[in-house]
Amino acid sequence: MKKYFSLIIFFFQILPTEGSIKVSIINKLKKTENINFNFIQKINEKTEKGNCTIFYPKKIFCEYFDKKGKILVSNGKSLVIKIKNTGAYYFYPLERTPLNLVLDKEFLIRKIEQLDFSQEDKDAIYFQIIENNQKINIFFNKKTKNLNGWEITDIYQNKNLIIISNILENQILNKKIFLLPKRTD
């Protein structure tokens, strides 16, 4: 009987529990000051690719791999999307966008602490966060505990899925990239 009891205890010690995975994700987030990654963005039927750098809290710089020269920048308070080739310039208060929550590491940590897994598969762990009538699905790599992407509804009510790869953490950054681009009319 002791043999079986010891085997059961050993078995449960080697299996990761939901709590230990959540703690690992939270600890990984706490240690992360910035991340750089490539992304694939799917909005409705349109797919775009690019590279982003997130600098916590709430700063992001993205360059799209398209011929338009599209960039997205947040300085932590405002969000600008600028398309160099057309001169289009879109300015938004960051707090009015769902990206405001995705870029807020402390918010994510608090919410993950409160939530159960929404879904889990062999590669990823998914959490669903609902805040201020905004739904955010955020997912992490099960093995590395890295942020792997998110799904939000953008300010135009489009479903926006971001899948990230080639992640580099805590790199030395040129913080000037988070300065908002000037409008050129």
User: If you compute it from the alpha carbons, what radius of gyration comes out, rounded to the nearest whole angstrom?
Assistant: 19 Å
Structural class designation:
alpha+beta
Number of helices: 4
User: Can you give the mean pLDDT?
Assistant: 87
Task: Characterize the biggest β-sheet.
Answer: 11 strands, antiparallel
Give the uncertain stretches in residue-range form. Answer: 3-17
Strand order of the largest sheet: 6-5-4-3-2-1-11-10-9-8-7
Q: First CA to last CA: what distance? A: 80 Å
Question: What does this protein structure show overall?
Answer:
- The chain has helices at 2-14, 18-31, 99-102, 105-114; strands at 34-43, 46-55, 59-64, 70-75, 78-83, 88-93, 119-120, 124-131, 134-141, 147-153, 159-169.
- It has 185 residues and is α+β, with helices and mostly antiparallel strands.
- Strands 6-5-4-3-2-1-11-10-9-8-7 form an 11-stranded antiparallel beta sheet.
- Helix 2 runs antiparallel to helix 4 (105-114).
- The relative contact order is 0.19.
- Residues 3-17 have low confidence and may be disordered.
List the helices and strands and how they pair.
Elements: H1 2-14, H2 18-31, E1 34-43, E2 46-55, E3 59-64, E4 70-75, E5 78-83, E6 88-93, H3 99-102, H4 105-114, E7 119-120, E8 124-131, E9 134-141, E10 147-153, E11 159-169
Antiparallel strand pairs: 1-2, 1-11, 2-3, 3-4, 4-5, 5-6, 7-8, 8-9, 9-10, 10-11
Helix pairs in contact: 2-4
